[in-house]
Write a structure and sequence with these properties.
Helix content is about 50%, strand content about 10%. The protein contains 14 helices and 8 strands. The strands form 4 sheets. It has a two-stranded antiparallel ribbon with strand order 1-4. Strands 2-3 form a two-stranded antiparallel sheet. The protein has a two-stranded antiparallel sheet with strand order 5-6. β7 (about 315-320) and β8 (about 325-330) form a beta hairpin. α10 (about 215-230) crosses α11 (about 235-250) and α10 packs across α13 (about 300-305). The radius of gyration is 33 Å and the shape is elongated. The relative contact order is 0.08. Residues about 40-45 have low confidence and may be disordered.
Length: about 350
Amino acid sequence: MSFLQIRKRHRKPLRIITVLFLILIVAGIWYVNQLYSSVFENNVRIPEYELYLDQSITFHDLADSLENDRALLDIQAFKRTMKLMKASDAGVPAGHYRLKKEMSNREIINMFRSGTQAPVRVIVRKARLPEDLAEDIAAQLRFSADSLLRWLRDSAFIDSLGFDRHSIMGLFLQDTYEMYWTISPRDFIIRMKKEYDRYWNEERRQAAETKNLSPMEAITLASIVEEETAKEDEKPVVAGLYLNRLRRGWRLQADPTVRFARGDFSSRRVYLRDLEAESEYNTYKIDGLPPGPICLPSKSSIEAVLHAEEHPYMFMCARPDFSGYHNFARTASQHERNRQAWIRALKK
């Protein structure tokens, strides 16, 4: 056999190997492309896609949801990648997920498969009653208002945190917090307790102590200040007035506590008959502070109590110009003149 015949004999297998090698290269490029391809159909329309899953679903259901929302650039590529990564029949945990435009199909699938959630921002706003708080928080998280209320009314649980049915509302501080959407109501309360302890550091506790107040008493007084005035520059003056009354042993006689005792927040007016309401929150009938806050005060109201203005005022009355500010007085006779001016303005 000649050398030429040998070369011809081996040329065919070499061609086959070369073709197979090229096929493998093309398949590899295709595979990598599927794993790392872009995920968004229109980067301007959906720069960031958010998905809330109330319960665990399969990747098949997930793909259908993404397809319905037209979130992906190529849904078929995403489905092929699911198969390549053996994720088709896997489950996706409940949660809040955020897809960003620079993510590949592989990154998206790994995110869902591991249940790597994106935190949500939860706003604790002013609220007067536990029911109001529960409704507001439940609208921002996965759990129901009733499930949160059950924990707020669990005496053994709130007692373990150092609160009771009157003071438990003081645990919650108005602010914006980041947490996972699937947090349980119990863990939400525990998280709020950590925020409460972080806020009430040694410096603030000492500031309250100098006013002969515990942190919860400071919050309770701040809730009255919060309801009395919306003017930030007036809050320390109002706080100082009520501290003067507490020091002298006077009843606070704060109208907002009467409205709270009455349970009617639709009217700002307080009538003489309302002052006789038998309630542990009616500061016209009880001595000292009520047993708990009458709303969730803002941090500025708490700070106003901790850094209250020192002055001789004992009385306050709304200004007759309806500006939202108050006239302050040292004596009952001065206060009566301010009150009559307010009544005349109302009649007009």
